[in-house]
Predict the structure of Phospholipase B1, membrane-associated.
Amino acid sequence: MKFRVNFHEDWKVITVLIGGSDLCDYCTDSNLYSAANFFEHLRNALDILHREVPRALVNLVDFMSPIAMRQVFLGNPDKCPVQQASILCNCVLTPRESSQELARLEAVTRAYQSSMRELLESGRYDTQEDFSVVLQPFFHNIQLPVLAYTYVSLFFPNQFEPLGRKTDTLDLAVDIPLSCPPQNDSFLRTSQNSNYTYPTKPAIENWGSDFLCTEWNPSNSVPTSDILKKFNAHILGFSTGTQEEMAGLNVAVEGARARDMPAQARDLVERMKNSPEINLEQDWKLITLFIGSNDLCHYCENPEAYSEEEYVQHIQQALDILYELPRAFVNVVEVMELASLYQGQGGKCDMSLAALSNCTCLRRSQDNSLEMQELKKVNWNFQSGITRFSYQHQYLQREDFTVVVQPFFQNTLVPLSDRGDADLTFFSEDCFHFSERGHAEMAIALWNNMLEPVGQKTTSNNFTHSRTKLKCPSPESPYLYTLRNSQLLQDQAEAGPMVIFWAVPVAAGGGLAVGVGTMMAWRAIRGRQRENPPINLNTMGF
């Protein structure tokens, strides 16, 4: 074949159909077959085609839902070899209806499909006129016949349908005619010749009417997706997704430990220094550092390397690097109480999966054992060890830089369901990372902590999944609290309050995940400043 193809002149149609086999094996290794790995492998393959193959149209076919496959096999056991098929696709065919395993499979399926759409909508493959990747969605909603099967190819006409109007439903029980494309539109469709623009990703949440800070409610014409945008719609730097292209200034790395924080801090500083969108001297930055769970998970392997002293020293080094930044507010979030997540769960946490293999100390420890007691002690030492950063003299020398420890994780209260069991919907299947719902709760807790004076901060989290618990900045105190404006400096009793305060921007989103080393920055457009009053919400915005 290669002798018949003029590689540089001939046009090629390439079809990629993948995902079903990965889902069949997902339950055997959720790390290997994770949505993140699926995205990365698919991206690498498409990158090779994009880089090396001229004149190519790549069809990325949305794979058939495994739930549809279940319906065929389980609904017709007499004709379908369920037992043999279960060996080949154990993770799809063996879970019971309404089981946690099946719900997890459906969630991973959606994550796979979302990854495919994110990859195409990023515009990564729209940089050349002779190369295009098009999603063909005819498998997206498929109805398979149980008692009969009618073969029909919807793939061919799907290629001729404009983007935005492609058929995404296929019922194989009915007779679907194979129609030809109209003569005046007889070409394969891409985003360019369909005059199609990929839709922007919708906001995850709209905090408008149910955000009770009425004096600062946003305009209905500006849909805001997180709390920060309530106060300044021009912030940037936050991550907009879980993939590398959407990371922004989020330099977090999965599995990071305290020893990785100096390198992450240096990476963050260099990114901001080199960004043409950031005025390093004038723009205000909000940075959140959250680390420690992975250190606890490996403490028992090497107590000296993961001691409190080493933990604090690594964070200190990171803060010293961040001190290079002008106009910066640094949140240091205390590590959560890890042991309570694993006690009294009745085996509902899937301890055989990735979290346990990566959390040696929890695997070795049993409830109320000496090892678990030691882990709790180290956990507490980590928390108490970083408390002093809010009072560190070296970070009080500048009026445009501060470090504040936020302690809402200090006492972890596992939420309960209506039946009185642990409500694991706040956590992923490994009981180690938060779910999307859990992330939202942590964002609210961080927001509330930042609006509380140092020394009076909430040290636990209230899992109620309600935004009514969001605290509001008051007209008397429209700022983030620091040691200085909390009136805790010794010289303030005589000298009176300093004139500089911190505006009220806050982190509502990405990166608040257990086990993920978090170092994020939100850069903001500098607001207009009045001549005399303190810098507050009305005079400055992130």
